[in-house]
Design goal:
The mean pLDDT is 87. This protein is of the alpha+beta class. It contains six helices and eight strands. The strands form two sheets. A four-stranded antiparallel beta sheet has the order 1-2-6-5. The chain has a four-stranded antiparallel beta sheet with strand order 4-3-7-8.
Length: 169
């Protein structure tokens, strides 16, 4: 947890003169990379087949909990009110932002290493895909323009959440 706190401090430039893990030994400060098998498993392009709407991507919002936001664009001749959205079989309402729409879910400890089922329907056809914060991590790892501070934050986040899941088993 202290390594995740430190990675967050460095990424956001907050209180960097008093890092959270400063009392740890150098070996305890070392954070491993996310395993390659996880990067490969979760690196996938997500698509939906519901007419008139396109899945554009997802983002992570890191606060006290991790929020996953999924972004969609509706064709000009369509109306967002004609679509139903669900995450894990629970209805969610889209929010408009900058000409796009998003839905979001909080990622608890269990679902961080698991998948959320994201479904979009228009009353005639429903499409869905599975998504996890690990999909975001994998995409960031594969990006040519990812910041090294972000990779360090994602590594620390992964191992913090992984260890938390292991303790709860």
């Amino acid at each position: 947890m202290l390594n995740y706190g430190t990675a967050s401090q460095l990424y956001f430039g907050y209180n960097t003169n008093a890092l959270a893990n400063r009392s740890l030994s150098d070996s305890d400060k070392a954070v491993k990379k996310v395993p390659d098998k996880m990067i490969s498993k979760y690196y996938a392009i997500k698509k939906i087949r519901t007419p008139g709407i396109t899945y554009c991507g997802s983002s992570l919002i890191v606060n006290d909990e991790i929020i996953v936001r999924h972004y969609f664009k509706v064709d000009a001749d369509r109306d967002i009110s004609n679509y139903d959205f669900e995450i894990n079989n629970s209805s969610v309402k889209p929010v408009e932002k900058n000409g796009m729409y998003y839905i979001e879910s909080a990622s608890g400890t269990a679902s961080f290493l698991g998948d959320d089922k994201v479904a979009v329907g228009d009353g005639h056809m429903e499409s869905y895909f599975k998504y996890s914060p690990l999909n975001y991590i994998s995409k960031a790892y594969k990006s040519d323009s990812v910041d090294s501070k972000l990779v360090n934050l994602l590594d620390a986040m992964y191992w913090f959440r992984y260890e938390k899941v292991q303790l709860n088993k």
